[in-house]
C-alpha cells in the first residue's frame, strides 16, 4: 500500500530532499568504489512510494528525468568515431553483433522456458521476451571501462575486445529503442512495422548525416565566433532537444535525434568543448532518471519472489559469461582472455534500465516481473566490480594450462635475453620498431623487441630478428626481456595509455633506465615526461623539423647552423613548435587546457585597445602575450610605446583561457 505523501512535489523542501538524498546515496556508494548509478537507484527505492513514501508519485518526475536519457544518447553519439569503428570492425561488428544477437535470442528461449515450466508465473509473449532480452544483453560501460582504465588494461588484447563489444552495445541500444515500441503493438503485421521503423531511421540518418555535417560545423563556428559561453550552451540545448523533437514527431524515439546530433558534432573541432559543457546537464538529469527508476521498486514484491531474483541473477550471469567467453574464443582469443572477457560483461548495464523503463511505459510486462528484473540487474551490477577485480584469480582456476603456456613463453624470452648486457628493449615491432632494429644492427647494438602481433613475430623471427611474442605492458615481460641489464627502453608505438603503463613498471623496476617514448603529437608530452620518460618524440613536430632542415639546406644555410637550430628546438622541449593556429580539423582546446596556442585577433572599430599601448592594456601575462602586430602588410614587433590602431591584427600567444580573457580586454 502506498504511503501518504510527506512533501509537496513542487516545494523547496522536495527539491532539498532530492538533492540531499542524491548526495548522500552517491557518497555512500562511491566510498565503496561502486558506480553512482547504484546510489541513485537506492535513493529512489528509499524515498519512493513503496518505501518511506517521501515522494508519492514518480510519474511527475519522469518527463524531466527522460531528458537525462536524451543527453546520455547525445553523449554516446558524441563519442561515436567512424575511424575507431572501422579500425575495430572485426570486434565491433563481428564479436559485438554476435554477442548482442545471441544474448537476445537466448533470453527469449530462457524466458519462455521458465514461463512454460512455471505456469503460476503467468504468460509472457515473445515480443516481451525479446524486449527484456535486449535489456539483459547490455553490460555496464561505466563500471567496466572505469575498472579497465584503473587496472591499465584498456590497451591489452582483453581490454580491446571488451571495449569493442561495449561499443556495439551502445549502437544496438539506438535500434532497440526504435524496435521495442513497435513490438508492443502486437499486431499481425509486426514485421512490416519494424521494417518501416528501421527504414525511416535509415532515411533520417542518411539525410542528416549527408546534409547535416557541414551545416553543423558552420553553425557551431558562427555561434562560437560570438565569444559567448552562455550562447554556446543555449545553442547546444536547442539543437539537441530540437533534434529529439523532430525524430519524435517522425514516429521515432527522442533518443535517436539526440544520438544523431552527437554524431554530427563528433566530426567537428568543437567535440571536446561540447562534451565538457553538456556533462553537468547530462549527469544531473541522468541521476534524476535513475532515481525515478528506483522509485518504481516495490521491495514487498521482491521479497515475495526472492527465489526468482536469485534464479534470474545466477542464470543471467552464467549465460552472459558463457556466451561472451565462447564467442571471444571463437573469434581467435586465448582461453584466458576469453574467460576474462566473459566475466567483464556478465552484468547488466545503464542502458538496461533505459530499456526497462521504456518497456514499463508500454505495459509489455507484468509490473511484478519488472520489479524482480530491476532488482536482479542491480544485484548483477553490485557484484561486477568484485568479479572484475579478481578475474585473474578466477580465470587461473579454470585455465591453468594457459598460465603455464605464458610462463613457458616468458621463460623462452628470458633465456634468449640471458646473454644480453647493455641491450635495448623495444616495446612494439611495427614499422618504427623494425626501422630502429635495422639501424641498431648496423652498429652491432643488441636489442630485444616485444610485440603482440603473432604473425609479424613469426615472420621476423624466421628472418633472424630478435623479437618475441609478449605484451610489453606486463611487468613479467619486461623482467624476462632483461630490463635490469638493459641500456635503454624504446616505446615505439604512439599509444599514451600503454606507454604510461610501461613507464610505470619500468621506473618501478629500473629507476635509472633511460626511456624514449614515441607520441603522435605534443598533446601528451608533459604527461609522459611526468611519468618518467627521458625523451618524448612527437611524430608531427619531428617531421616538421626534418622538412625544415631540408628547406634550410636548399636555401644554402650551413649544416652546422641547421643542426644547432634543430638541437635548440629539441632542448627547449619543442616549446616554440607546440604553438599553432587552430583550424577546422583540429580539436578545440578546453578551458582547462594548459598548452599555449597562437591566435590572430583583428581590432574592429570601437575596440577598447585602440589608442593604447601594450603596457596600458591589462593582460594576464602569465596566461597570454602579444607576440607581434600586423598592420597592413607590415609585421611590427611589440614594444612598450607601440600604439594599437584600428584594423591591427594582434597575434596572441597563450592558453585557451588566457586568449579568451585577452579578447575580452582588447575588444
Automatic annotation (TrEMBL):
The keyword Transport applies. Residues 421-538 form the RCK N-terminal domain. The chain crosses the membrane at residues 12-32, 63-80, 92-118, 124-144, 165-184, 190-211, 231-246, 280-299, 305-331, 368-389. It holds the Pfam family TrkA_N. It comes from the Bacteria. Residues 585-667 form the RCK C-terminal domain. GO terms for cellular component: plasma membrane. It is found in: Membrane. One of its GO terms (biological process) is potassium ion transport. Signal peptide: none annotated. The keyword Plastid does not apply. One of its GO terms (molecular function) is monoatomic cation transmembrane transporter activity. InterPro entries: Cation/H_exchanger_TM, Na+/solute_symporter_sf, NAD(P)-bd_dom_sf, RCK_C, RCK_C_sf, RCK_N. Coiled coil: none annotated. It is a multi-pass membrane protein. Keywords: Antiport, Ion transport, Membrane, Potassium, Potassium transport, Transmembrane, Transmembrane helix, Transport. This is TrkA N-terminal domain protein. It comes from Oxalobacter formigenes OXCC13. The lineage of its organism: Bacteria, Pseudomonadati, Pseudomonadota, Betaproteobacteria, Burkholderiales.
Amino acid at each position: 500500500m502506498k504511503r501518504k505523501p510527506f512533501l509537496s512535489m513542487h516545494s523547496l523542501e522536495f527539491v532539498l530532499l532530492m538533492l540531499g538524498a542524491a548526495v548522500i546515496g552517491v557518497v555512500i556508494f562511491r566510498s565503496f568504489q561502486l558506480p553512482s548509478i547504484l546510489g541513485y537507484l537506492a535513493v529512489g527505492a528509499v524515498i519512493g512510494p513503496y518505501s518511506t513514501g517521501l515522494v508519492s508519485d514518480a510519474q511527475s518526475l519522469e518527463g524531466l528525468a527522460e531528458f537525462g536519457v536524451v543527453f546520455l544518447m547525445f553523449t554516446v553519439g558524441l563519442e561515436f568515431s567512424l575511424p575507431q569503428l572501422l579500425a575495430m570492425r572485426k570486434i565491433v561488428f563481428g564479436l559485438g553483433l554476435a554477442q548482442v544477437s545471441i544474448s537476445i535470442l537466448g533470453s527469449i528461449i530462457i524466458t519462455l522456458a521458465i514461463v512454460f515450466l512455471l505456469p503460476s508465473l503467468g504468460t509472457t509473449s515473445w515480443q516481451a521476451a525479446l524486449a527484456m532480452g535486449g535489456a539483459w544483453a547490455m553490460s555496464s560501460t561505466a563500471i567496466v571501462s572505469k575498472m579497465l582504465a584503473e587496472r591499465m588494461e584498456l590497451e591489452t588484447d582483453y581490454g580491446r575486445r571488451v571495449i569493442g563489444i561495449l561499443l556495439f552495445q551502445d549502437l544496438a541500444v539506438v535500434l532497440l529503442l526504435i524496435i521495442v515500441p513497435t513490438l508492443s503493438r502486437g499486431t499481425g503485421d509486426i514485421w512490416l512495422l519494424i521494417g518501416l521503423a528501421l527504414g525511416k531511421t535509415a532515411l533520417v540518418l542518411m539525410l542528416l548525416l549527408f546534409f547535416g555535417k557541414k551545416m553543423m560545423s558552420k553553425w557551431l563556428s558562427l555561434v562560437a565566433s560570438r565569444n559567448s559561453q552562455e550562447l554556446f550552451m543555449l545553442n547546444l540545448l536547442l539543437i539537441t532537444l530540437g533534434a529529439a523533437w523532430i525524430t519524435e514527431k517522425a514516429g521515432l524515439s527522442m533518443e535517436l535525434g539526440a544520438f544523431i546530433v552527437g554524431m554530427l558534432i563528433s566530426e567537428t573541432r568543437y567535440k571536446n568543448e561540447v562534451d565538457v559543457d553538456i556533462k553537468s546537464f547530462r549527469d544531473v538529469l541522468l541521476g534524476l532518471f535513475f532515481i525515478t527508476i528506483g522509485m518504481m521498486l516495490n521491495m514487498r514484491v521482491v521479497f515475495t519472489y526472492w527465489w526468482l531474483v536469485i534464479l534470474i541473477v545466477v542464470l543471467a550471469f552464467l549465460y552472459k559469461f558463457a556466451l561472451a567467453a565462447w564467442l571471444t574464443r571463437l573469434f581467435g582469443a586465448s582461453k584466458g582472455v576469453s574467460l576474462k572477457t566473459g566475466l567483464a560483461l556478465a552484468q547488466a548495464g545503464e542502458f538496461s534500465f533505459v530499456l526497462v523503463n521504456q518497456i514499463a511505459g508500454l505495459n509489455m510486462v507484468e509490473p511484478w516481473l519488472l520489479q524482480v528484473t530491476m532488482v536482479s540487474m542491480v544485484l548483477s551490477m553490485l557484484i561486477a566490480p568484485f568479479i572484475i577485480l579478481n578475474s585473474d584469480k578466477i580465470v587461473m582456476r579454470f585455465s591453468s594450462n594457459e598460465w603455464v603456456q605464458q610462463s613457458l613463453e616468458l621463460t623462452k624470452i628470458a633465456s634468449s635475453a640471458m646473454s644480453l648486457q647493455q641491450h635495448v628493449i623495444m616495446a612494439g615491432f611495427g614499422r618504427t620498431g623494425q626501422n630502429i632494429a635495422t639501424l641498431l644492427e648496423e652498429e652491432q647494438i643488441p636489442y630485444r623487441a616485444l610485440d603482440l602481433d603473432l604473425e609479424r613475430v613469426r615472420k621476423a623471427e624466421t628472418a633472424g630478428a630478435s623479437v618475441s611474442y609478449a605484451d610489453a605492458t606486463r611487468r613479467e615481460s619486461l623482467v624476462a626481456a632483461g630490463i635490469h641489464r638493459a641500456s635503454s627502453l624504446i616505446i615505439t608505438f604512439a599509444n599514451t595509455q600503454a606507454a604510461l603503463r610501461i613507464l610505470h613498471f619500468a621506473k618501478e623496476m629500473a629507476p635509472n633506465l633511460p626511456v624514449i617514448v614515441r607520441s603522435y603529437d605534443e598533446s601528451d608530452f608533459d604527461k609522459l615526461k611526468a611519468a618518467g620518460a627521458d625523451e618524448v618524440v612527437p611524430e608531427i613536430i619531428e617531421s616538421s623539423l626534418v622538412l625544415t632542415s631540408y628547406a634550410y639546406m636548399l636555401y644554402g644555410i650551413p649544416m652546422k647552423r641547421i643542426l644547432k637550430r634543430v638541437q635548440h628546438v629539441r632542448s627547449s622541449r619543442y616549446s616554440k613548435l607546440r604553438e599553432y593556429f587552430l583550424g577546422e580539423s583540429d580539436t578545440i582546446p578546453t578551458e582547462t587546457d594548459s598548452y599555449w596556442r597562437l591566435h590572430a585577433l583583428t581590432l574592429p572599430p570601437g575596440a577598447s585597445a585602440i589608442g593604447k599601448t601594450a603596457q596600458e592594456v591589462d593582460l594576464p601575462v602569465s596566461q597570454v602575450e602579444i607576440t607581434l602586430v600586423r598592420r597592413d602588410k607590415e609585421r611590427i614587433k611589440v614594444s612598450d610605446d607601440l600604439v594599437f590602431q584600428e584594423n591591427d591584427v594582434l597575434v596572441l600567444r597563450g592558453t585557451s583561457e588566457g586568449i579568451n580573457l585577452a579578447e575580452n580586454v582588447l575588444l
